[in-house]
Amino acid sequence: MQMPWKETLKMDQKIEFAMKAVGCSNFARLCEEYGISRKTGYKWRERFVAHGLSGMEEESRRPQGHSEALEEEIVCRIVRLKQAHLHWGPRKIRELYERKHKGGTPSESSFKRVLERAGLTQPRKRRRAQAGGRLATGRKAGEPNEVWTVDFKGWWMGQQGDRVDPLTVRDEYSRMILDMRLVDNGRTETIRACFETLFERHGLPSAIRSDNGSPFASSQGLLGLSRLSVWWLALGIDLERSRPGCPQDNGAHERMHLDIRRELQGGRIGRDQAAFDLWRHEYNCERPHEAIGMAFPSEIYRPSQRVYQGTPGELDYGGMETRRVAKQRGSIKYQGEQIPISAALEGWNVGLAPKATGEVEVWFANLLLGHIDSETSGFTPIRTNPEKAHTGPLADSATLHRPKDRYSNKDIANSTKTCNP
């Protein structure tokens, strides 16, 4: 029969149970008699044997470690780091703390509690997941320089009323911002000059991903080709494009733009390239990134082994018959006929490959543009996007395809690379 527990006699009954439990031959029956589990009974007996009557006192249920128990200096360090990086979350702040103060780093939950109590956090707005995704043929970078992404941030007005419209270029694998450039305009010549500098500094990527806007693409051109993207193709760089109206196809780049909007646009930073360079240095060399294991992009990124050697005068099509695209007309001459191809290709040479069907394939670099009917001399363009192009005749050309740099996350610990924004 179970004995009813009375609050006023609880301590006496615990002591009585503990005294009976020492040397008891039927421990399970004793626990049943007092209406407690055997786990509780064993705990009380062990406390009584180890500490006597004092072991029967109720122990504090307060957690042994929490934010209020942190030393004042540790709390101050956490708050100072957060104030210096107001848009960083507790995980990034903790990573930065651990890098600055080796050993004894509090848990992530402690960082969250400290920052919440200091009023330095805001609840994250959860967005409903929407359908969408990458291009069917879009690649996922597995090493530095496999895919670069490019876009304009979108302009804002600085404090002095000046229009700010930065160009941003980023390595997808390492998250390294390769350039964040204040440009005077978005003309092809201006953006090409920026990329020439980047190629000289970092080498050539395997592919560049952009949206469908000018000067990266042309909505009216053959396969969306623009003069800038034609130049990329001539250098042996593949083209990838996001779908119209689908910024999620270049989502990581857009997420970086959100940081720019919060931290630079929010402060109405004007046309101050030095301020942009300083922010980029922090992003690359001081800011931990969750997607790369809380490493810095500068610890992951390495220059490409595909060295930029300038713009080729002509492309070698490996024995194919070639034609130069006429300037100001965008056409080639074939069998005495002028056949319009694309104004974006003016001045470049294209390769012609006759097929057994009687058609003639028209190639530019590794991109199949379309077919010429050998009887009617009519040109039929390929009805697809550049990222779906076939592997072309220049696949083995040393001019367009050079060895890739191999580098992975496991090399971080051995990296002695000096960060250069």
CATH architecture term of the largest domain:
2-Layer Sandwich
Which structural class is indicated by helix and strand composition?
A: alpha+beta
Rg, Cα atoms, Å: 33 Å
Query: What level of helicity do the residues show?
Result: 25-40%
Give start-end ranges of low-pLDDT stretches: 127-137, 385-418
- Count of alpha and pi helical runs: 11
The largest pleated sheet is described as: 5 strands, mixed
Give the strand order of the largest sheet, numbering strands 1, 2, ... along the chain. Answer: 5-4-1-6-7
Anisotropy-based shape: elongated
How many strands appear in the DSSP assignment? Answer: 14
CATH topology of the largest domain: Nucleotidyltransferase, domain 5
Number of domains: 4
Element string (H = helix, E = strand): HHHHHHEEEEEHEHEHHHEEEEEEE
The average pLDDT is 81
| First-last Cα distance | 78 Å
- CATH H-level superfamily title of the largest domain: Ribonuclease H-like superfamily/Ribonuclease H
Percentage beta strand: 15-25%
CATH class of the largest domain: Alpha Beta
